[in-house]
């Protein structure tokens, strides 16, 4: 167990990492997009809940630390006087148990705010795909159900509820067993929610026609939840181990709340970090996007930042006519990769359009028909451009 200064230093260092990444997210998003989306506000809420959780952990730690040090001293010397009066010790115990109850509510809310931030971020990927949108709402409902289950389990751990913060606490064998089951259930719900969130984009990734290198890069970003899952397992192990040790060594009983608080803080901070990582993707690669090789005979499609289709080029050398493409031939070879960069990112430019016209032999003036159409990628010659700032060019 860490000493007092190291314990609080680590707790606030984790908060500091969350603050820096959240501030970086807010700055980058505003500079790149000029606005914030729902996933950004959920990440900001996650940081607010993390701040409240850190404050509660800071207040709880000294209350349990005093009892722990006294029990350790009394084990060595039974005549050791208590550091405070019995009445004060009972009052501190009740206060600590109330704070622990609120701490768990803040912990689950912090975790799920980060989960919903990632889930809403992935939603923009499947916009326009009815089947995957339906899957999104199913996953959303299941993730919400896991959150409500964790909150409910916190209220059902000790019955009646007032006994939770009574002087003796939930110390009888039945409630101790129920508390252990509650931790296991909540951890299982935490892990299940992370897997559900990851499976939504990963399933879609299997059907995307891009290179293996790009698929690996996207899979890494979509699998960030595995980091949170790893810390959830460590947290469960540490807490259940402390509970078992308390049955053999009563002085280890106070280690349980301290370890629970510490690992809850660690997992919550990691959840916020994971939620913020996708916002930094624009720093990894330039907004020009990545390139993949399509099939022969692809057409040049241009999508401006406003979503309008503009310009055109001839189908043959020296021809002033424009090659017409029916809607049936405009396929969706990928999901909305441009949304992974920003809500206002644009594909190509007017300069690229003119270059395309010259390349395909449009040298004579003529009437150009403008059509508005939504596409998610464009191709020029033998190259298809898909805007995605996370994966390096293939």
What can you see in these coordinates?
- With 394 residues, this protein is mostly helical.
- It folds into two domains: 280 residues, Rhopdopsin 7-helix transmembrane proteins (Up-down Bundle), CATH 1.20.1070; 108 residues, no CATH class.
- It contains nine helices and three strands, in the order ααααααααβαββ.
- It has a three-stranded antiparallel sheet with strand order 1-3-2, with no helix packed on it.
- A hairpin with a 2-residue loop joins strand 2 and strand 3.
- The two termini are 48 Å apart.
Short recap of the structure:
The protein is an all-alpha fold and 394 residues long. The chain is built from 9 helices and 3 strands.
Biggest sheet architecture: 3 strands, antiparallel
Structural class: mainly alpha
- Bin the helical content: 55-70%
Instruction: Report the top-level CATH class of the largest domain.
Output: Mainly Alpha
Number of strands: 3
N-to-C CA distance: 48 Å
Shape: elongated
In spatial order, strands of the major sheet run 1-3-2
């Amino acid at each position: 167990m860490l000493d007092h200064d190291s314990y609080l230093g680590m707790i606030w260092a984790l908060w500091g990492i969350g603050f820096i990444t959240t501030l970086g997210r807010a700055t980058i998003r505003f500079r790149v997009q000029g606005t914030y989306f729902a996933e950004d506000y959920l990440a900001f809420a996650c940081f607010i809940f993390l701040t409240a959780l850190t404050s509660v952990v800071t207040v709880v730690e000294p209350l349990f630390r005093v009892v722990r040090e006294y029990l350790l001293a009394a084990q060595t010397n039974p005549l050791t006087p208590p550091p405070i009066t019995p009445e004060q010790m009972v009052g501190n115990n009740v206060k600590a148990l109330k704070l622990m109850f609120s701490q768990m509510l803040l912990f689950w809310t912090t975790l799920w705010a980060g989960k919903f931030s990632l889930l809403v971020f992935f939603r923009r990927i499947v916009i326009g795909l009815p089947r995957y949108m339906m899957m999104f709402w199913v996953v959303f409902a299941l993730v919400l159900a896991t959150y409500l289950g964790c909150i409910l389990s916190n209220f059902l751990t000790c019955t009646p509820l007032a006994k939770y913060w009574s002087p003796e606490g939930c110390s009888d064998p039945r409630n101790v067993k129920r508390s252990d089951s509650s931790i296991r259930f909540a951890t299982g719900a935490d892990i299940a929610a992370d897997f559900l969130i990851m499976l939504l984009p990963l399933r879609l990734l299997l059907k995307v026609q891009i290179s293996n290198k790009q698929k690996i890069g996207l899979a890494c970003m979509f699998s960030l939840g595995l980091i949170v899952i790893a810390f959830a397992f460590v947290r469960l192990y540490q807490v259940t181990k402390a509970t078992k040790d308390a049955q053999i060594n009563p002085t280890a009983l106070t280690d349980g709340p301290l370890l629970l608080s510490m690992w809850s803080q660690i997992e919550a901070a990691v959840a916020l970090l994971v939620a913020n990582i996708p916002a930094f993707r624009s720093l990894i690669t330039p907004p020009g996007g990545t390139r993949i090789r399509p099939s022969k005979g692809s057409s040049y499609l241009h999508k401006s930042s406003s979503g309008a289709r503009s310009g055109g080029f001839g189908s043959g050398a020296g021809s002033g006519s424009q090659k017409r493409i029916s809607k049936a031939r405009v396929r969706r070879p990928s999901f909305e990769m441009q949304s992974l960069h920003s809500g206002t990112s644009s594909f190509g430019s007017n300069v690229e359009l003119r270059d395309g016209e010259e390349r395909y032999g449009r040298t004579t003036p003529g009437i150009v028909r403008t059509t508005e159409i939504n596409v998610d990628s464009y191709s020029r010659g033998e190259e298809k451009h898909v805007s995605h700032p996370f994966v390096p060019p293939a």
